[in-house]
Every structure is written in C-alpha cells, then in structure tokens.
Specification:
Strand content: under 5%
Number of strands: 0
Radius of gyration: 36 Å
Largest sheet: none
Number of helices: 7
Helix content: 55-70%
Distance between the termini: 73 Å
Order of helices and strands: HHHHHHH
Structural class: mainly alpha
C-alpha cells in the first residue's frame, strides 16, 4: 500500500512538471488555447517520439487501441492525466494512524485523567488527604546536633 501512496505522489509531481512543460510548449509556439492537450504538448516538445509511439502501438498492438483509447486520453491535459490518478492514489492509500478514528475519545479521556489519578491515590493504604504532598522533605534530623557540635567522629 505504501508503494501506491508513493506512486500517487510521483504522479502528482509529474502533473506539476507537465504543467511547467505546458508553459514551455507555449513558448515554443504551440497553439494558444486555454488548455493544451497532452497530444499537442507531446507533439510540440517531442514530435518524433509521438509519431514513433503511434506507429509502434498501431503495428505491434492494434490500430484500434491508438484510435479509440490513446487519442481520446491524449486529448485531455497532461497535468490532468497525471494529477487525477495521482491525487486519487495519494488520498486512498495515505498512511493512517491506528488511533486515528479515536482522537475525540482520547481527548475526552484526558479531561478526566486527574479525577482517575485522584481516585487511584485514595484507594492506596498510606494515603492521607490532610498530608501536603508538595511540602519539602529535608530528611531525618537524627544525625545533626542543633547545638553546633558534630556527633560524628572522623
């Protein structure tokens, strides 16, 4: 599935390149219309390749394949021929997160996290609600002599 997602993005990139080539074809003297067909774009930029491709398809496959399939497809703009399937593949096979549909439930659960933690703390045996758990703990004072002398001998 990831290969189809990447293929979709490659086709979308090809659509942008085809749109840029459409601008180049207009500079090289292609007919001035609002939308340039893929056939006109191909013929303006690489006329020899178009003729060779047509001959190969008609001779080795079937003449009707070129006439009834390739020509109608090539009448569409090149950016649409590449961008349409590219966008469909990229959208259909996009990576999804496993918790993608449950994002709203996760947000609701996080609202009640404090309440759940407070209930869990109250269930413990040594929990005292009056105890300040944020008070600093300075440790035991047994080893310190408050008169200034040190009981420890070196």
């Amino acid at each position: 599935m990831k290969i189809l997602f990447v293929l979709g993005w490659v086709l979308l990139g090809g659509a942008f390149v085809a749109a840029a080539y459409e601008t180049m074809a207009r500079i090289h003297g292609a007919e001035m219309s609002v939308i340039l067909s893929a056939h006109d774009l191909w013929y303006t930029l690489w006329p020899g390749k178009l003729v060779v491709t047509q001959i190969l398809v008609e001779r080795h496959l079937h003449w009707a394949l070129w006439e009834y399939l390739a020509r109608p497809l090539l009448s569409l703009p090149a950016w649409l021929l590449l961008g349409g399937p590219g966008a469909a593949l990229a959208w259909r096979f996009r990576p999804r997160h496993p918790e993608g549909e449950d994002d709203e439930n996760d947000e609701d659960e996080s609202l009640f996290l404090f309440d759940a933690l407070a209930e869990a703390a109250e269930e413990e045996d040594d929990y005292d609600r009056r105890e300040d758990d944020m008070a600093p703990d300075h440790g035991p004072f047994d080893d310190i002599d408050l008169d200034g002398g040190d009981d420890r001998r070196s």
